[in-house]
Amino acid sequence: AETKKIAIIPGDGIGPEVVAEAVKVLKKTEELFGYRFETETGLFGGIAIDETGTPLPQDTLEKCQRADAVLLGAVGGPKWDNNPKELRPETGLLGIRKALGLFSNIRPAVIFDCLKEASTLKPEVLEGTDLIVVRELTGGIYFGEKFRRETENGQEAVDTCVYNVKEVERIVHQAFQIARNRRKKLCSVDKANVLETSRLWRETVNKIAPEYPDVELEHVLVDNCAMQLLRRPSSFDVIVTENMFGDILSDEAAMLTGSIGMLSSASLGEGSFGLYEPVHGSAPDIAGQGIANPIATILSVALMFKLSFGYHEAGDLIEKAVKSVLDAGHRTGDIAVDKSKAIGTTAMGDLIVAAM
Amino acid sequence: AETKKIAIIPGDGIGPEVVAEAVKVLKKTEELFGYRFETETGLFGGIAIDETGTPLPQDTLEKCQRADAVLLGAVGGPKWDNNPKELRPETGLLGIRKALGLFSNIRPAVIFDCLKEASTLKPEVLEGTDLIVVRELTGGIYFGEKFRRETENGQEAVDTCVYNVKEVERIVHQAFQIARNRRKKLCSVDKANVLETSRLWRETVNKIAPEYPDVELEHVLVDNCAMQLLRRPSSFDVIVTENMFGDILSDEAAMLTGSIGMLSSASLGEGSFGLYEPVHGSAPDIAGQGIANPIATILSVALMFKLSFGYHEAGDLIEKAVKSVLDAGHRTGDIAVDKSKAIGTTAMGDLIVAAM
Ligand SMILES: CC(C)[C@H](C(=O)O)[C@@H](O)C(=O)O
Ligand SMILES: CC(C)[C@H](C(=O)O)[C@@H](O)C(=O)O
Crossing angle of helices B222-231/B243-257, nearest 10°? Predict the structure, then answer.
């Protein structure tokens, strides 16, 4: 098979620990399927600030640009939280999304049967929940002009939320296509009763909808969506929304699964290139102890295989291996009911590799 | 006692039905406590559009301006959903908030013991949940400049989110004061890792905090807060946040109580004037059937008594009467387990008045 280039970005906190296990899984698929991966590792986030003075070094960006996909651990931590803006890990995250043109963030929220009890929602409400939040990732209030000015009422801060038709079209098309390959239901979330960007969003969705007559479309206001996710999570299939709303709703959706240590995500642009990362953060409180759960990162590899490389069989195999290890009762501390029986990061990685 | 003027705005859908029951409760307190209320009724929302061509007629605004408090039912409905902006009920809502200077929206999310089962959250997670969301109501992206312009990528829409120090200070002081009279915990929610308005917000909160050394302060990012509300609702006391985040989080918080038909809200400005309304909407699907739950509106009267008039004894009495009617097993359709035993709107109102 053709060699695939993967940029590996361990990042901060538990990032390096969980990424190491995902790399074992990558290696195992070379052995099993004859794939060839060429990996380059880059500094990013807090560690990059410490070692190079910037959260997103040019060298790391170039490694990503010449790769077919990027695997990211996690970034950030209290150490850098009070830094000025240019020296914060999040600034690197926003920078890499923009520089790589990753306009779409795909966040599946699925229930792992064996972890249903970990959710704070009632099991009968969660039953059958399997949704994807498609979040616009390079527009909106995240990237609009920001500034301060003096007024008679003290300093004033301004953020600008901007969307043009093209930006809405490309993400909405992608969401319709994802829905078409699933349960054919698309929920577009906006605040069209208040925001001009939301009115443009809704008009654009309605203009595109006739091209997908097989997909059922509903418009839901963001405040109502925050409620409906709690009330009827299993009724959602694909949710598409703008950057800020997507940030909030995808985290709410992730939390209600009860499996936040298990969820992976993809950030995509045009074409097959993508950046893959676990939904959880860098968890500085447990970093370096060898107890972090590597499953979300391992499942991010499965997502990479499917979405960027078309390696569906191998992607399925990884997912099955994870399931079989969980079904056999193995748990890291975050998901263990009996914490005294919890296994560590490398043990979990090894079990999954063995199950493949 | 001095006469209090109350502007009564029934609005649309079930609004008139639930407001009628709240007015009975008002009357009952005149009898029991010797209060004197002078009420004026005004058109607002969809019905005002139909009858006067504008959602917020000048006459209604004047009735509110000369009142000591406003009691609002609910506004909106599908009939007006596709109207141009100036002819939409929501535009009236934003207009009345601004015109009356109601910069603070107080949304208690409490659990009614007898309704705990109605929540989709596990009862053991909900146990002890009793929080208030204090939402800034007249600033931010709701009221900033909005426009469209042509670009090479099609039309572009712009919304502007603006906050000045004064606007943040007044709402944050109010939230600290509310927290001081409760469990003394304040959670300020922002997105300071991305937004300039959020950085100004956080700086201002930190500047004010030393004036309230008895209140424990935490800063939580909005995406994380959407998660933590689900994971540990009972650990929150008072949450203070800007307009858009407050819209989303207060609805999420309301829904997790399982008692959305029971929650009241207050919108306050400087001084004791306030607008009181149920959290639920106009429910056009059940309007006119006499089955709507009037409890949230009745509890809005209790809130009005406490926050605008200082009538604490009467406010407590209303709350106790509601509780005793619920404890006796009476339910409207929305909260009944056995729907065949549900009682109607007026029956519920009469029972509460009788219990007083
Ligand atoms: C760290 C932050 C800038 C980022 C975001 O808001 O996009 C994070 O919350 C996420 O969702 O990936
Ligand atoms: C109707 C709408 C404009 C309003 C808002 O977003 O403020 C509503 O959702 C609310 O929360 O009162």
Answer: 10
